[in-house]
């Protein structure tokens, strides 16, 4: 599984928009703004660790396996 923070802005954008279906501004607009990457990454917080894992993604480092590690970890 890939750590979310290791994704490029474009990769994160594709997961958020295509896999999870979140509406986002055009990729060109997001890539060219200082806030763009953070804006895209915050959409991952809307998903559980299990949902992220199904997409092959994770928040935590391997050393913290078992903890979702996300800033919005929740038990639902």
The helical percent reads 25-40%
- Secondary-structure-based class equals mainly alpha
- Sum up the overall morphology in one term: globular
Counting DSSP H or I runs of 4 or more residues, the number of helices is 4
Unreliable segments (pLDDT under 50, ≥5 consecutive)? 63-69, 72-76
Strand portion, in percent? 5-15%
- How many separate structural domains? 1
The overall average pLDDT, rounded, is 85
Major β-sheet, in short? Answer: 2 strands, parallel
From the N-terminal CA to the C-terminal CA, the straight-line distance is 21 Å
Rounded Rg? 12 Å
Q: Could you tell me the number of beta strands?
A: 2
SSE succession: EHHHHE
Strand order of the largest sheet: 1-2
